[in-house]
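Long-time lurker. I teach an intro course on protein structure, and each term I like to show students one example going from raw sequence to a predicted 3D structure in token notation. This year I'd like something fresh instead of my usual example. Would anyone be willing to generate the tokens for the chain below so I can use it in lecture? Attribution to the forum is fine with me.
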Amino acid sequence: MNTEIIALQYPIETNGLEARELEMRRPTVADMMRMDKAKGSDAEKELKLLADLCQCAPEELEKLDVSDYAKLQKKLTSFFS
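-- Reply from a regular --
Happy to contribute to a lecture. Here you go:
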């Protein structure tokens, strides 16, 4: 499966290690269906999807600086074009 590397300007701890980048895989139809069925706000659903695609917990992505989170959002959007 194709993946993209997103460099973080502000590293976070993920899976017990400092992460200076995150690897995001392309979403599948199944990912989108799970997101659609998930409970919570649109922002919470997006966070869960991005966490799945980056193979980390949503709580870890919550530690991201907003500028780094915006990079993940931009990459996710690019997968649809």
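Some talking points for your students: The beta strands are 3-14, 17-25. The chain has a mean pLDDT of 94.
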